[in-house]
Amino acid sequence: MKTNLQGLLSKHHLVWQGNAGSGKGSGVSTGFPGLDRVLPTQGWPSGGLVEMVVPYWGLGELRLLLPAMVRLNQDKRQIVWIAPPYLPYAPALARAGLDLQYVLVVDAQTGNVSWAMERLLATRACGMILAWPAYLSDVETRRLQLAAEAGAGLGVVLHTTEAKWRASSAALRLQIHPAEEGVTIDIVKARGGCHRPRVSVAL
Amino acid sequence: MHHAAQYGIPVEKESTLDPIRAPASLLWVAVDFPLLALEALSIDADECAVVTESSRRGEVVYQAAENARSLGIVPGLNVNAALAICSGLGVRPRDADAEYRHLRKFHRWANRFTPTVCIDPPTTLLFEISASLKLFGGIEALYERLCHDLDLSGCRHFVAVTPTPGASVILAGAGWAGLVTDRAGLRASLKALPVRSLGLAGETLRKLRSVGVSSLCELWRLPRHDLARRFGPEVVKKIDQVLDKHPDPRETDPLPIRFEHHFELEAETIEVDFILRAVRVLLEQFADFLAGRNAVAGNILVLLQHAEKPATRIKLGSRLPTRETGQWAKLLHERIQRHELYAPVVGIYLSASDFQSDSPASGDLFEISAAAKDWAHTLDELEARLGKKRLWAPKVSADYRPEYAWRRVRAVEPSIVNPATRPLWLLHKPRPLGYTADRAPDAGLLNIINGPERIESGWWDGNEHCRDYYTAICPRGRRLWIFQDLKHGGDWYLHGLFG
To answer: What is the DSSP letter of B256?
Structure first.
């Protein structure tokens, strides 16, 4: 009986439960056991939005996401890059184990980044959708989180530092810092997690 | 009253001579336009006007509008006599070209229902619809649809549907409108019509009349061998063709290779919803056009016409060639939103010339999973809104120089790219075959056995391609890989040999 009630509540989003993780509950392993352990979903929240705040590009943000990308890609799910700041370099992607048949780059104009991401989150074909918007309003973030919950893909929004202290409706919000061997990650907000640890990940 | 029997021609019982066989399978629609000459010149029925033609007796009335008719101005009347009756009479010479163009318009309309359409001069359009019945919900529904469309056109018409082209033309030409699907009904509706409606030579007609044959049923009751002996085999053939006892092949006019339709808005508008509604009307006509020829389209062009400014051109492409109205409307919606209409729209023009057969052999559209379809549609929508060049997939190239070790390719759903046929030999350079856009390879010389496969790419390296590749067999038995270059004028080239 108890499980039925639990199931009903989580299925219909009737009550938001602080400790139940995001709506879908399940996660995609990040490929870094130390990080998986501290995340409430034991990995990236699939069917959720991740906001990653990075002081500058090239810090290790892609290497951090790469194991999950490869994993999702193996299930023939698309990895989409929306408005990336540089060219995703095909030889390196292939070498990392991505099947390039399932990689798409969308050079969306500034005003269209959020629209494109929302549209892509709604399709079943996408595994991970990464976006580098110049700016994202609260309303847009909320819409994206809802779209991610309705769909099956993992949405990742990458920001530089300006947007750091804004309230966010994303399921997971991370702040990345450079570290000696890899990165240090502050979990600024995690839906379903009560403490906000800091983890170091060797890349 | 004369009767054939009086002249020694034995009359046989119809039932023994002509047993009714299995129900006919073909259905021919004849649409006769009795006022074609007037309508082609845009003369209204309530105008007091006539169209004239030259005859041995000088200029005579060929067709008279209702108002002129009511004054006693009838076809055949000398123009001077007509002017004496009504001095304000509008007189226009007949324009056969305009009449033909007018019929061609209806030809295009009929193409929405079937590819088998021809013009039966001077005033009749003829088309065969048996293959389209299922698609349009049965013969009654289709007949109603035809009449409805024709009523909307505002042209006077008679629509006769029968199992033979000859009977349909005769009936429609005689001002009969209706639907006959079996042979018994065919005879019933034809029997009272005069023999001259068969279009026989004057001499034959005179002879027939002299033996007392004036109606069609009097003619078909006569034994065929006597008929042939006395009046020539042509008469027998004609009547048998009309009665569906002798084949009556009709040459179908070449298909228009383009779909072009126009929608005039009642008032100019900038409202996207109004525009989309009008586009939907055009798209539905387009869907019918494609369904009628079992085709799908991968590209369409929409022109939004403005009052005094150049039209807005919107090209739409679909990864999965389709005839679904909804998908095109969605793509257009994205595009219009992006474009910001720069002036109110007064009319919309939809055209397409790039069709593919929807047969299972070429494309296996039904094999594509719902997920793949969804992905293809998503890509189309993104492209429609963002622009074609904004979507790409990275690929690895074999080159040690970093900037050449990769390239962009057009994003497609992987499962749509079928393991394509590629020849073992590739020519160093494509060799012109001497065929052009107007002159496709002759079926006798090059038999196309596979294709087309559209290969389109290269905008990023300045080597843009848009080619339709085919596999063909030449008379010497060589298997060739040929293509039509759609980017540069539509010439045909040989590109490879299958070895």
So the answer is: P
Q: Choose the closest CB to A105 out of B374, B394, B397.
A: B394
Inter-chain CB proximity B396 and A116 less than 8 Å? no
Pseudo-torsion of CA A132, A137, A143, A147, nearest 10°? 10
Task: Output the pLDDT for position A132.
Answer: 94
- The whole-number average pLDDT for the span B110-114 is 81
Kindly report, residue by residue over A102-113, the tens digit of the pLDDT: 999 999 988 899
In order of B30, B258, B431, B435, B443, the CA distances from B475 in angstroms are 41, 31, 18, 17, 10
Task: For residue B338, give the DSSP letter.
Answer: H
Whether A90 and B414 lie within 8 Å, measured CB to CB: no
For B63, how many CA atoms within 13 A lie in the half-sphere containing its CB? Answer: 23
What global pTM score does this model have? 0.58
pLDDT one-digit tens code per residue, A4-23: 666 665 555 555 554 444 44
Are the Cβ atoms of A116 and B406 closer than 8 angstroms? no
Widest CA span in chain B = 102
B394–A123 CB contact, under 8 Å: no
Alpha helices per DSSP H over B352-454: 370-386
Check CB contact of B405 with chain A, cutoff 8 Å: yes
Q: Is the pLDDT of residue B104 over 90?
A: no
Instruction: List the structure tokens of A148.
Output: 């991610």
Q: What is the DSSP string of B162-212?
A: ESSHHHHHHHHHTT--EE--SHHHHHHHHTTSBGGGG---HHHHHHHHHTT
